[in-house]
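hiii, so i know i said id send this last week but things got crazy w the move. better late than never?? heres the sequnce for the chain we talked about at the cafe, plus the structure i predicted for it. fair warning i was half asleep when i ran it
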Amino acid sequence: MLGTYNKSSNNASTSEIAPLIMIVDDRPDNADLLAMMLEHQGYRTIKYYDSLHAREEVELGLVKPDFFLLDVMMPGMNGFDLTRCIRSNPRLPYIPIVLLTAMQDDKARATGLEAGADDFLNKPVNRLELAARVRSLIRIKQTNDELRRKTEENRRLNDELRFKNAQMARELGVILKQSQSS
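okay and structure toks below
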């Protein structure tokens, strides 16, 4: 099943693009309800009812979500395995993953956390809890993204500085050689 994309009426300023949340749930009614709750909060959503298709689109870079909301129990590939695939992809930056589950046992939660999930939400999902967790993890992602951008900028500036220092040292060497020979 193709992913369906919904553009929310973004509450953020027009210069900001609302974060994109990928919802993967084999039950369309659940995915639609989650999308509606998140769009009401100003987020953009994309829904997949097939975890294998969602994985493929992410791996190919066809969709670049800012957040994953994954059902645990799905045919084909469950939420734990999809989480492992996402986390094992070196081309993907840190993207928060929240697993949705009706399971109450600690072993399932431990499995999800070991797979790389950041958090869990119980089904049925509480609208306020969903909004708070998404907001919190998006804030962490944005801070992480900004840190990565600044680190890359510092790396670039350091490389430029090293190049200019080497260039100046060569020029100084030429000047010293010329002054010694005269």
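btw The CA atoms of residues 154 and 178 lie 36 Å apart. thought thatd interest u
miss u guys!!
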